[in-house]
């Protein structure tokens, strides 16, 4: 089931520290609110903070981290890489390549869209709850500062979204050291709580989970909806696989993150047993008074890092979705000349900023917001596990034991999901609503694009018949120069070329038909990038290009490479003076469409978001002509 990804990079301290700063921000800041959310859920169910509850809660959290993160993500998912890349969409690409049946591939594509949509729904909640939980430390320092929590959170989050356009290149180098300090601090505070109450170590035994459910069955089940907050951010381990590699992420988790989290939760539990007033905010209650203010500042920095990572992850998901054809390809700004994966999507950033700030104003505290957190996370984990099981089952290197374990953990995750359904009325409706809206948007765009492609194919001619097109119009004048026609679909004569021949009766002496496809791989090696073929003696050259779903088409740079690699075929082609022709299919409302009226309107609205193809394809504006053709839906 493991997919070879080439030679593994050398793993050193720098890579591990880098992974700590980027990958583990979300899950690393969960001690700020996870235990407090479990206590709040139990109190609503009428259960007090007694010995069985504290040990049972702690054991449930620790074993959830073990099963979901250590086993499912670190042991299994990180080994299922798509040529070094991870994440649900990358895993979906692996599965689609293995499934021959079109119906099954479509079904899993829809499932993948649902998982990606839920991740985006979760991206609205994570920054809000993370920053709120950190700033709430002010209340512990000085209760009169409680009125400043929401305004401070709003200012911090607004600043976060304002600086997103600068990229993480300049400040990213500081993320790792800050998170190293953060994990050291929460581990030290945890040790303080364990030393205070050593008997809390008995909660390492899973039998306390059983006792917890036997003594408080109702509260224990409902508390699972809060326990899942401890594993939020696990999906980042898989999604950021391509940035740091499996070994760096695994070592950071095993040697730094997991021990620090375990000590923090154990320490909070121990402190709750000797200080009943600590249950309201067990994390900051555990921090010694002299260092409370510095820890609040450090926690705020850590949550900003966690939020930034989640927002960047949202950019990547939307970008990849556009490349896979399930969302419009939005305007993308590359914030780093050295790293093409550092991107900024202005439209997504603005939408997330508005929604996150509204969420803070609506819920106003991390405990209240915890009721909205968890459903989208468990759905995403469940869907990723289902896709992984399908991929493993269809793999030629099927490892049955691994599938059995992953399937068993899926049952546990589904129990978490059912427990989270109880939170729908008290806030869980928010990420679900966002996820459903995003999913409907994805499905509409996907179906609309298929309709447009069908209509376009009915009007276009195969490349093999380009000579027939020219011969059918004997009056076509071949003028000096080079014309480059761009086609999103391989093997097709672009509509712009047909329009030139049929309406203008003129065509340049040298013609390049450049088509490209996006495959279910993140990156395509240089030696597989393009194929070149001369079409007869008419001066027509076909260039077929392949891009990965994480790559951006750069046509001018590509054609320079083609001319260097194929000088004979490209003889006479002058790229410096060539005219580029872009065929644009413009969808139109149709009363005969298979798509419902509302779906057509949504698709037409989304189509307006598609950026200028001249900018997207990196074409020279003064030498580019866009020719549109109406296509009824």
Automatic annotation (TrEMBL):
<feature type="transmembrane region" description="Helical">
    <location>
        <begin position="207"/>
        <end position="231"/>
    </location>
</feature>
<feature type="domain" description="K+ potassium transporter C-terminal">
    <location>
        <begin position="480"/>
        <end position="631"/>
    </location>
</feature>
<feature type="transmembrane region" description="Helical">
    <location>
        <begin position="295"/>
        <end position="318"/>
    </location>
</feature>
<keyword id="KW-0769">Symport</keyword>
<dbReference type="GO" id="GO:0005886">
    <property type="term" value="C:plasma membrane"/>
</dbReference>
<keyword id="KW-0813">Transport</keyword>
<feature type="transmembrane region" description="Helical">
    <location>
        <begin position="428"/>
        <end position="447"/>
    </location>
</feature>
<dbReference type="GO" id="GO:0015293">
    <property type="term" value="F:symporter activity"/>
</dbReference>
<feature type="domain" description="K+ potassium transporter integral membrane">
    <location>
        <begin position="16"/>
        <end position="458"/>
    </location>
</feature>
<keyword id="KW-1133">Transmembrane helix</keyword>
<feature type="transmembrane region" description="Helical">
    <location>
        <begin position="403"/>
        <end position="422"/>
    </location>
</feature>
<keyword id="KW-0472">Membrane</keyword>
<feature type="transmembrane region" description="Helical">
    <location>
        <begin position="12"/>
        <end position="33"/>
    </location>
</feature>
<dbReference type="GO" id="GO:0015079">
    <property type="term" value="F:potassium ion transmembrane transporter activity"/>
</dbReference>
<dbReference type="InterPro" id="IPR023051">
    <property type="entry name" value="Kup"/>
</dbReference>
<feature type="transmembrane region" description="Helical">
    <location>
        <begin position="53"/>
        <end position="74"/>
    </location>
</feature>
<dbReference type="InterPro" id="IPR003855">
    <property type="entry name" value="K+_transporter"/>
</dbReference>
<dbReference type="InterPro" id="IPR053952">
    <property type="entry name" value="K_trans_C"/>
</dbReference>
<protein>
    <recommendedName>
        <fullName>Probable potassium transport system protein Kup</fullName>
    </recommendedName>
</protein>
<dbReference type="Pfam" id="PF22776">
    <property type="entry name" value="K_trans_C"/>
</dbReference>
<feature type="transmembrane region" description="Helical">
    <location>
        <begin position="104"/>
        <end position="125"/>
    </location>
</feature>
<dbReference type="InterPro" id="IPR053951">
    <property type="entry name" value="K_trans_N"/>
</dbReference>
<comment type="function">
    <text>Transport of potassium into the cell. Likely operates as a K(+):H(+) symporter.</text>
</comment>
<comment type="similarity">
    <text>Belongs to the HAK/KUP transporter (TC 2.A.72) family.</text>
</comment>
<feature type="transmembrane region" description="Helical">
    <location>
        <begin position="252"/>
        <end position="275"/>
    </location>
</feature>
<keyword id="KW-1003">Cell membrane</keyword>
<feature type="transmembrane region" description="Helical">
    <location>
        <begin position="175"/>
        <end position="195"/>
    </location>
</feature>
<keyword id="KW-0630">Potassium</keyword>
<feature type="transmembrane region" description="Helical">
    <location>
        <begin position="145"/>
        <end position="163"/>
    </location>
</feature>
<keyword id="KW-0633">Potassium transport</keyword>
<keyword id="KW-0406">Ion transport</keyword>
<dbReference type="Pfam" id="PF02705">
    <property type="entry name" value="K_trans"/>
</dbReference>
<feature type="transmembrane region" description="Helical">
    <location>
        <begin position="369"/>
        <end position="391"/>
    </location>
</feature>
<feature type="transmembrane region" description="Helical">
    <location>
        <begin position="343"/>
        <end position="363"/>
    </location>
</feature>
<keyword id="KW-0812">Transmembrane</keyword>
